[in-house]
Amino acid sequence: MKALLVGLGEAGSGWLRRLRSLNEDLELAASDTDGSRGEQLQADGIPFYTDTTEAIERERPDFVINVTPRHVHTAINHLAFDYKLPVLCEKPIAENYEKAQEIVKRAEEERIPFMIAENYRTFAPLRKLKQLIEEDAVGALQSLECEFFRKRQRVTLEPNDELEEVIIHHFDLLRHLSGREVGKLYAVKRHVFHIVMDLQAGIQASFRCSLRSVGRETQWPGDWRIEGEKGSLTFKDGEIELTTPAGVQRWSDFSDVEVRTPVQEFMKALEEKRRGETDAKEYLKNQALAYYTRESLKQGQQVDTSASWGYGPADIRNFMRAELKSASSHGGQGLVESIRLFGKGDFETPLKFLCYSVLPPGTSIGYHGHREDEEIYVILEGTGLMTINGTDTRVGPGDVIVNKPWWKHGLVNDGSESIKAIVFEVDKG
């Protein structure tokens, strides 16, 4: 594969060194508006351009790595998308949240692979921490706390730029480790950033950050304490400690943990035709948290962040206006009219389907069972005879009938009006 590296400044120079050290069969070309940066590259046989459009048209790369300054990200991303080229972009996605939303929307609509080069979660100890959580080492999560203290190394960093340049990494780790989204957020800042968050499933989280510390520095991923119902996990000074009633376990050697760099993950995702682990649509939620932190600072109060979860508009389907189809139901009498409003692919829970059914007089749903599923009938109109495990029961408007796993059931309309019902089925999960 061939990659076009756009940007050879501070970040780009580091990227160039890492890319050249990869063992993968990766060809490289590069572009930067500063022509002096290309002299050594050309001497090393790497094609160099001062115009990115020219570089794309001449080199025909398989993907673009965008490591330009933040305010240039949007323009380069759009240029790559004009040529339908996948993009691996340095964080943040764009110079502000609104532009980030726009560029992600375009990538989604045009189905162009777009991933953000988030690297903190690729640290081997953080991979191990995630593995322990997934293995239920501490049970259901209750709280996560992170502290990040370093000396300021970039004096040009503007006030609050810590959010997009530094803290966004920890937002990503918080979501990655917990597997949950942030619902509410309250931020204050004087000498340190202090952000308190409510996550899904009732999990609490807090984050404290300073880039002006004169004391002990944390590692770049920060120090973590994760509390669960069965124990706690800590990560500090490169060591993980698990404490449960059974005792204490420690890990300081992570050589057995498999780790991919962002570019390795991106190339693998392209090869396997799947989304990258830090796909831009997912990563947008991190930039959203930076945006909401600023909103909380401005408003001086807690803000609701749930609009950033990316679930889209409410999915509403009207059974009264739906076009019904007629068919025999489980070998019953006559033809039953029905419409499947939602199928298994529409749900994130064990729901299998939701149907609206109309049984004209004299028709029936044949006697049958559903193994380990539960099927629920909600009678809206009409009356009939429901047979459950060999016992007949009269049902009518307002009745909700639960047919449990392995039970057998059927419904006969022996009345003079149609039976109208909502029927849905739930898998054992």
From TrEMBL:
InterPro entries: Cupin_2 (IPR013096), Gfo/Idh/MocA-like_OxRdtase_N (IPR000683), Gfo/Idh/MocA_Oxidoreductases (IPR051450), GFO_IDH_MocA-like_dom (IPR055170), NAD(P)-bd_dom_sf (IPR036291), RmlC-like_jellyroll (IPR014710), RmlC_Cupin_sf (IPR011051). Residues 2-112 form the Gfo/Idh/MocA-like oxidoreductase N-terminal domain. Residues 358-423 form the Cupin type-2 domain. One of its GO terms (molecular function) is nucleotide binding. It holds the Pfam family GFO_IDH_MocA_C3. Residues 127-233 form the GFO/IDH/MocA-like oxidoreductase domain. PANTHER family: BILIVERDIN REDUCTASE A. This is Cupin domain-containing protein. It comes from Paenibacillus mangrovi.
